[in-house]
């Protein structure tokens, strides 16, 4: 399992990449593989305040629906609108396709998330 080293991971299969206090959030390759072909990504509301672990939105596939969680507390800034028309982008390039941006209340909280090897152990 290849996991980019420039991000942190959550046991619920999201990745988080810090870009100066704004956190890009997506799903891992393992998550998209388990879900199968994605057909919907949505219910993300910019301006919403989220606690770490709180539902930010949903992804749906031909197999199942899955909540997407905030990796850290903060404000949901932006939803990746490209996913409204092309949810398959998450299947094709899960680590290159972010789902939402979050302004972290405390960017240092990201350090408490899993690194690649720790996430790989959880995903197996």
UniProtKB/TrEMBL annotation:
<dbReference type="InterPro" id="IPR017453">
    <property type="entry name" value="GCV_H_sub"/>
</dbReference>
<dbReference type="GO" id="GO:0005960">
    <property type="term" value="C:glycine cleavage complex"/>
</dbReference>
<dbReference type="InterPro" id="IPR000089">
    <property type="entry name" value="Biotin_lipoyl"/>
</dbReference>
<dbReference type="Pfam" id="PF01597">
    <property type="entry name" value="GCV_H"/>
</dbReference>
<keyword id="KW-0450">Lipoyl</keyword>
<dbReference type="InterPro" id="IPR003016">
    <property type="entry name" value="2-oxoA_DH_lipoyl-BS"/>
</dbReference>
<protein>
    <recommendedName>
        <fullName>Glycine cleavage system H protein</fullName>
    </recommendedName>
</protein>
<dbReference type="GO" id="GO:0019464">
    <property type="term" value="P:glycine decarboxylation via glycine cleavage system"/>
</dbReference>
<dbReference type="GO" id="GO:0005829">
    <property type="term" value="C:cytosol"/>
</dbReference>
<dbReference type="InterPro" id="IPR002930">
    <property type="entry name" value="GCV_H"/>
</dbReference>
<dbReference type="GO" id="GO:0009249">
    <property type="term" value="P:protein lipoylation"/>
</dbReference>
<feature type="domain" description="Lipoyl-binding">
    <location>
        <begin position="22"/>
        <end position="103"/>
    </location>
</feature>
<comment type="function">
    <text>The glycine cleavage system catalyzes the degradation of glycine. The H protein shuttles the methylamine group of glycine from the P protein to the T protein.</text>
</comment>
<dbReference type="InterPro" id="IPR033753">
    <property type="entry name" value="GCV_H/Fam206"/>
</dbReference>
<comment type="subunit">
    <text>The glycine cleavage system is composed of four proteins: P, T, L and H.</text>
</comment>
<comment type="similarity">
    <text>Belongs to the GcvH family.</text>
</comment>
<feature type="modified residue" description="N6-lipoyllysine">
    <location>
        <position position="63"/>
    </location>
</feature>
<dbReference type="InterPro" id="IPR011053">
    <property type="entry name" value="Single_hybrid_motif"/>
</dbReference>
């Amino acid at each position: 399992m290849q996991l980019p080293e420039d991000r942190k991971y959550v046991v619920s299969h999201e990745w988080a990449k810090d870009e100066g206090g704004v956190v890009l959030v997506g799903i891992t390759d393992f998550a998209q593989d388990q879900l199968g072909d994605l057909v919907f990504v949505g219910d993300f509301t910019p301006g919403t305040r989220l606690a770490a672990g709180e539902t930010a939105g949903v992804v749906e596939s031909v197999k199942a629906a899955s909540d997407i969680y905030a990796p850290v507390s903060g404000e949901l800034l932006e939803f990746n609108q490209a996913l409204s028309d092309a949810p398959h982008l998450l299947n094709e390039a899960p680590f290159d396709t972010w789902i939402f941006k979050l302004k972290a209340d405390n960017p240092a909280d990201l350090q408490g998330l899993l690194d690649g090897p720790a996430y790989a152990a959880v995903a197996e």
